[in-house]
Amino acid sequence: MRKLAAALLGCLVVAGCASDWQAQVTYQVVEVYDYKMAPSSEPEKRVRLKLAGEAPSGVLSKDSLASQGVALADISGDVAAGDSVTCTAKQHTSGATQTNGIKTELSGCRKA
């Protein structure tokens, strides 16, 4: 029984613990621009956002949160450069063995 407990504890130490974070975050629209995935494709309107103010407490990665790009169609309301947008920001890490950086996903964006 002790060997089993030690083995399970060892697995937890190696794998680390996953961590999640989510909050409402306000961004400022830096620019609206056309983006083409391929030369033959139709351009998509995208919005470049930068964090307005300080990062919320508990955020896993401030760098990943600071600047974001989203499709204009994913934002409710008409936006232009200088406008404020509020989004739900989610960050996730799988633990100590994760080799990828922490990524931020934005959803539910709307003009503030």
Q: Strand tally, please?
A: 6
Can you count the helices? 2
The largest β sheet comes out as: 6 strands, mixed
Our measurement of the CA-to-CA distance between the termini, rounded to an integer number of angstroms, reads 57 Å
Which structural class is indicated by helix and strand composition? alpha+beta
Strand-residue proportion: over 45%
Task: Please outline what is shown here.
The protein has 112 residues and is an alpha+beta fold. The chain is built from 2 helices and 6 strands.
Can you give a write-up of this model?
This protein is α+β, with helices and mostly antiparallel strands and 112 residues long. The chain is 17% helix and 46% strand. Strands 3-2-1-5-6-4 form a six-stranded mixed sheet. The longest helix is centred in the first third of the chain and has 14 residues.
Topology:
Elements: H1 2-15, E1 19-35, E2 44-51, H2 62-66, E3 67-71, E4 75-76, E5 84-93, E6 103-111
Parallel strand pairs: 4-6
Antiparallel strand pairs: 1-2, 1-5, 2-3, 5-6
Structural key phrases:
112 residues; alpha+beta; 6-stranded mixed sheet; 2 helices; 17% helix; 46% strand
